[in-house]
């Protein structure tokens, strides 16, 4: 009761002050006193605090309201990277089928028809070998390198474990390690058939340093596996003549396709260079030919392999003006190569 009486007295006094001075101060939100001005808003806040008293305990939490309506869809995000994919060459054509991306148009190249050695496979040479010149291709056989969204497979010799799902696997010939950003699956030794055998395997393989065998029985008929030597590489691979070549099998999880381009040292736009080097195979006059491989520009050697044991061999491959346009190709110039991923 006393609180109510006090509140009424305060309000009565303030009301009297406001009414006495309202003719003097008009349009103002404050009231004049002998000590200044009294703000009406502040007075009301004081009064409400007097009437309100102490805060009570927290109330009971109310029930959850109804679920709101679904909001509008946000903007479409950027497309993610393509999953999987495969690169292939369309021999005899300058363009790709519908649905495939043209990486480059080129010229079909290979070893001479009556040479017993040299490369065993055809390659799609770019029309411009890292130069800016171009000439009509006359009556050469053309080719085109394509990219299509499919799946990839790889073969790992001698019982090695398979890589993770996705990504791309490639071999870095001539080195024991992988480029930055790629995972080393295993370090190995480059193997192949003897250079002067007319039969046997036509490809190089990356043999693991520790093999796994399944049978102790000797087959009745077979081919051979030898180490692979750098041969006659004095001017370019200093100190590596007759040394055996190592290899590294590499895996990159962020890429899905691999491409080796002969006669180039750079990759197409949006592709990543894994390594570059020289296109190598057997000597043109050997009885046994081998597929062309891209050997790293800074090769290493297998420790203790300095002896001249021959076996499979790595020789440089040179361009000729017999069937290739010169320029831009140059006669007897070592052909470069680059390994690209995307």
From TrEMBL:
<feature type="compositionally biased region" description="Basic and acidic residues">
    <location>
        <begin position="54"/>
        <end position="72"/>
    </location>
</feature>
<protein>
    <recommendedName>
        <fullName>Short-chain collagen C4-like</fullName>
    </recommendedName>
</protein>
<keyword id="KW-0732">Signal</keyword>
<feature type="signal peptide">
    <location>
        <begin position="1"/>
        <end position="20"/>
    </location>
</feature>
<dbReference type="GO" id="GO:0005615">
    <property type="term" value="C:extracellular space"/>
</dbReference>
<dbReference type="InterPro" id="IPR051077">
    <property type="entry name" value="Ca-dependent_lectin"/>
</dbReference>
<feature type="region of interest" description="Disordered">
    <location>
        <begin position="54"/>
        <end position="85"/>
    </location>
</feature>
């Amino acid at each position: 009761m006393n609180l109510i009486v006090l509140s009424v007295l305060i309000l009565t006094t303030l009301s009297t002050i406001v009414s006495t001075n309202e003719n003097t101060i008009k349009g103002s939100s404050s009231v004049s006193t002998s000590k200044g001005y009294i703000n009406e808003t502040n007075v009301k806040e004081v009064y409400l605090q007097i009437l309100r008293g102490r805060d009570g305990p927290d109330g009971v939490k109310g029930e959850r309201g109804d679920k709101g309506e679904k909001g509008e869809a946000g903007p479409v995000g950027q497309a993610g990277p393509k999953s999987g994919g495969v690169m292939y060459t369309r021999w005899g054509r300058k363009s790709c089928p519908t649905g495939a991306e043209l990486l480059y148009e080129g010229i079909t190249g290979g070893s001479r028809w009556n040479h017993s050695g040299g490369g065993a496979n055809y390659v799609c040479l770019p029309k411009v070998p890292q130069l800016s010149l171009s000439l009509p291709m006359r009556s050469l056989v053309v080719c085109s390198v394509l990219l299509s969204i499919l799946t990839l497979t790889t073969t790992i010799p001698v019982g090695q474990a398979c890589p993770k799902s996705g990504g791309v696997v490639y071999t870095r010939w001539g080195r024991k390690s992988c480029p930055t950003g790629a995972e080393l699956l295993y370090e190995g030794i480059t193997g192949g058939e003897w250079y002067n055998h007319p039969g046997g395997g036509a490809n190089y393989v990356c043999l693991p340093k520790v093999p796994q065998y399944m049978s102790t029985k000797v087959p009745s008929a077979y081919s051979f596996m030898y180490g692979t030597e750098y041969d006659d590489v004095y001017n370019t691979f200093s100190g590596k003549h007759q040394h055996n070549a190592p290899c590294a099998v590499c895996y990159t999880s962020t890429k899905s396709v691999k491409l080796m381009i002969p006669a180039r040292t750079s990759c197409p736009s949006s592709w990543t260079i894994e390594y570059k080097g020289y296109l190598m195979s057997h000597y043109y006059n050997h009885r046994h030919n081998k597929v062309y491989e891209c050997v790293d520009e800074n090769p290493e050697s297998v420790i203790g392999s300095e002896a001249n044991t021959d076996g499979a061999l790595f020789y440089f491959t040179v361009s000729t003006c017999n069937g290739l346009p010169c320029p831009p190709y140059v006669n007897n110039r070592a052909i470069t190569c680059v390994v690209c991923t995307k």
